[in-house]
Design goal:
heterodimer; A: 398 residues; alpha+beta; Butyryl-Coa Dehydrogenase, subunit A, domain 1; Butyryl-CoA Dehydrogenase, subunit A, domain 2; 4-stranded mixed β-sheet; 4-stranded antiparallel β-sheet; 10 strands; 45% helix; 14% strand; globular; B: 378 residues; Butyryl-CoA Dehydrogenase, subunit A, domain 3; 11 helices; binds flavin-adenine dinucleotide
Chain lengths: 398, 378
């Protein structure tokens, strides 16, 4: 057991700081810090900078373009990115479909898609959930029927984040309706420009459009776009969900948000004094900070176990549960710190063509938007109820 | 002791509920919230015709002499429908302050107009530095000739966008947070030197920041005796808090019904999700929070009608703290139990969540009223 950093680690830390200080675009940083959704243009611009530096995929094996960082280096990079409010790469390509492709894809698929993911040439979205299949994902109904060297896909996906911006969607489809639910599913990569695909926006409670419905009507998908074997898609889907769960914890970002909360609280007044002198407020902030610290060291402990080749079962579900609950408490406290300036809210497009910025202090622009959106954090990626079911079954044997 | 409604109160309740049923389907409410105005002048007229805008005013100022209990009954219904008309701003706050502190001439000029639905009001009390402290007033009113000149910045004035007149708290003497030295003024919302920044709030309502720059008003704008407004402000905002508690109770009950129904309809894993025990227990917790809140809201309304000042303060602080916590829990869990559905703007549950979120903040959040109660109890 050892928590110290080596000389090389410290040099690496300097390198990361230097890189972020010189290369992170201020507009991208600002949106990330406020908790506003990234713009497509800004996100891609930043991801291309990351790729040029070779830092796009810290978790990929080196042979596919990963960084080959040690646990300490990954930790240092995540921490520094968080503190600098540098967005991490959007998960759909880098954290979700990328690992599926390099783990289960064939050489042609690897050669075709991995470099384009690294260079953000394709914007990916995730076509898992359907109107009747959310928590019970394996009941999904979107059908793919073989027709020569194509699948013909019919059905509907829902809650598809950023589908309206996407070039590619990875989809779970039913290829065998007679088999047991889990055994009739295949994993397809589909070009969003294929005829027969319609994307319909869903406006969220934050009044922004990140969610969509995606309709498939006789959509012809080449057989070579299937990952792995037909009817084995559930295996790949679960592999992906495992990665998704770990990624959602976002410890480094929450650490930065604690700092930001302190900054805001120092500027806010309560009874003539800074809010940071309000004992109730500080108690809540401190509790959050310590919970976050416990989560951080849990994550590191698990990573260290994995690095030493130990097998985990459903422990990462804990990271998802605790991480998202902390994010929600944090945004709640951020909104609370604003007093009545927590209440004003309009979606971003409402400001188009208006010579105005949101009312109140500058830092009031963001917390409510994020608070509203992050109510979903305990729902997406497998709801926290489902995660608790998994832990009780897989870890505790109940 | 009796928690049951009288026959007349039941009739009144029926008419509130009918109004909500006829005018506040979730589609109609969403449309209305999206208009420029954010509510309906037609509804406002109807409320006036039904006598509701005069309900809380005593008979000697031309009202119908309703008690706080009747206001509670009304606000519960309004909460169920997430009604958008500025009843609290105009009648309870603006009208309440004028009825409480105004001169006969002021009352005569304004209250009948309010009751008939011809005049809307708003109360501008919060300031960027004040947070929830009613005594933290830096807006200044300095004597000038026989009148006053106002300077300052009032923040998040609910319905300051549409009010014809604004009641403003301003300091005529003393230091920033002194309770003594605060005065109230009635100002036309378009008076020279007043500028406004209008905006929408997350609960679909409208608010404004109002800036006063050398706004000159006559002596007749002063409401009550100079420098003595604090107890009046505290009393009237306590009535507003009680009204908001009742609104929250209605909103929580409606949110729980919608969620409960959804849990029976929505199937996953071949069974209604309401069959999962962890969700049943959650729903029971939500139900209990709404029940506890209902009790506190009833209690506070009856205490207001008893008229004891100290009792009133403690009851209001306790009720707001309880209702604030419950509002957050019920609002947030309603979304959670709906899954993705709960996150869509098109569906009603998110709107309950958002209104419950702002009620928790308005006139002091949960922490603020915990502290207030503790201070009153020690
Ligand atoms: C903002 C957002 C972004 C999303 N992005 C994507 C995306 O990009 N791609 C994609 O495919 N999907 C996406 N999703 C969908 C997400 O994965 C689903 O919402 C989630 O799986 C829950 O499914 P559901 O919405 O159908 O809710 P339901 O499954 O109907 O769940 C409703 C409630 O019941 C509970 N519940 C269900 N089953 C059980 C059980 N067995 N025991 C206890 N409780 C249970 C749930 O926890 C929840 O509280 C997104 C969702 C949101 C809100």
């Amino acid at each position: 057991m050892d928590l110290s950093f080596s000389k090389e680690d410290l040099a690496f830390q300097d390198e990361v700081r230097e890189f972020l200080a010189t290369s992170l675009p201020t507009d991208v940083k600002d949106r990330c810090d406020r908790g506003l959704h990234p713009t497509k243009e800004g996100q891609i611009r930043w991801q291309k900078i990351l790729n040029e530096k070779g830092w796009m995929a810290p978790n990929w094996p080196k042979e596919y373009g990963g960084t080959g960082w040690t646990i300490s280096q990954k930790y240092i990079a995540a921490h520094e990115f968080g503190q600098a409010s540098a967005p991490i790469a959007l998960p759909f390509g880098i954290s979700m479909v990328g690992p599926v492709i390099y783990t289960f894809g064939n050489p042609e698929q690897k050669a075709k898609y991995l470099p384009r993911i690294l260079n953000s040439d394709d914007w990916w979205c995730q076509g898992y959930s359907e109107p009747g299949s959310g928590s019970d994902l394996a009941s999904l109904q979107t059908k793919a029927v073989r027709d020569g060297d194509h699948y013909v896909v019919n059905g509907q996906k829902i809650w598809t984040s950023f589908a309206h911006l996407a070039d590619m969607i990875f989809c779970l489809v039913r290829t065998d309706s007679s088999a047991k639910q889990q055994e009739g599913i295949s994993f397809l990569l589909i070009d969003m420009k294929t005829p027969g695909i319609t994307v319909k926006p869903i406006y969220g409670i934050d009044k922004e459009n990140t969610l969509n419905e995606v309709f498939f009507e006789d959509v012809r998908v080449p057989i070579e776009n299937r990952i792995g074997e037909e009817n084995k898609g559930w295996t790949y889907a679960k592999f992906l969900l495992g990665n998704e769960r770990t990624g959602i914890a976002r410890v480094a970002r929450s650490k930065r948000q604690i700092v930001r909360l302190r900054e805001i609280a120092a500027a806010e007044r309560s009874g003539g004094k800074p809010l940071t002198e309000d004992q109730d407020f500080i108690n809540k902030l401190t509790r959050l900070e310590i919970d976050l610290m416990a989560l951080e060291y849990t994550e590191l402990r698990y990573l260290s176990m994995i690095a030493k080749g130990k097998k985990l079962t459903a422990e990462p579900s804990l990271l998802k549960i605790k991480g998202t609950e902390i994010q929600q408490r944090l945004t709640e406290l951020l909104v609370e710190s604003l007093g009545m300036y927590g209440a004003p809210y309009e979606p971003e497009r409402a400001y188009e063509g208006r010579n105005e910025t949101p009312v109140g202090p500058d830092y009031a622009n963001g917390p409510m938007a994020e608070h509203l959106y992050l109510r979903a954090a305990t729902i997406y990626g497998g709801s926290n109820e489902i995660q608790r079911n998994i832990v009780s079954k897989m870890v505790l044997g109940l | 002791m009796d928690f049951e409604l009288s026959d007349e109160q039941n009739l009144l309740k029926d008419s509130f509920e009918r109004f909500v049923k006829d005018n506040y389907s979730s589609d109609a409410r969403a449309k209305l919230a999206n208009t420029e105005l954010g509510f309906s002048r037609g509804h406002w007229k109807k409320m006036a015709e039904l006598g509701w805008l005069g309900l809380p005013f005593s008979e000697d100022v031309g009202g119908f002499g309703g008690t706080a209990v009747e206001t509670m009954i009304m606000m519960e219904s309004m909460g169920r429908g997430l009604v958008l008309e500025p009843f609290v701003s105009t009648v309870i706050l603006g009208g309440g302050l004028i009825a409480e502190a105004g001169s006969p001439a002021q009352i005569e000029a304004i209250i009948p107009e309010v009751i008939e639905g011809n005049m809307m009001l708003a109360f501008a009390y919060a300031e960027p530095q004040s947070r929830f402290n009613l005594n933290d007033v830096e807006t200044a009113a300095s004597k000038s000739g026989s009148g006053y000149v106002l300077n300052g910045h009032k923040s998040v004035v609910y319905h300051g966008t549409t009010a014809d007149k604004v009641v403003v708290s301003a300091r005529t003497s003393g230091n920033s947070r002194d309770e003594a030295g605060i005065s109230l003024f009635i100002v036309d919302n378009n008076v020279s030197g007043l500028s406004r920044r209008d905006y929408r709030t997350i609960d679909g309502q409208r608010a404004a920041d109002i800036m006063f720059e050398n706004v000159a008003v006559g002596a007749d704008a002063l409401l009550g005796k100079e420098g003595t407004a604090y107890p009046v402000i505290e009393k009237v905002t306590d009535y507003a808090i009680a009204a908001l508690c009742a609104e929250a109770v209605g909103a929580m009950q409606a949110a729980n019904e919608i969620t409960n129904e959804y849990m029976k309809q929505r199937k996953q894993f071949g069974t209604p999700i309401g069959k999962f025990q962890v969700l049943q227990h959650r729903m029971v917790d939500m139900y209990m929070e709404a029940e506890q809140s209902k009790s506190m809201s009833d209690m506070v309304a009856m205490k207001l009608d008893l008229g004891d000042e100290m009792e009133r303060r403690k009851a209001v602080a306790a009720a707001k703290a309880q209702v604030g916590q419950a509002s957050k829990f019920v609002g947030q869990q309603s979304i959670q139990l709906h899954g993705g559905m709960g996150m869509t703007d098109e569906y009603s549950i998110g709107h309950y969540f958002k209104r419950l979120t702002t009620i928790e903040m308005l006139f002091g959040n949960t922490d603020y009223h915990f502290k207030r109660f503790a201070a009153l109890s020690s």
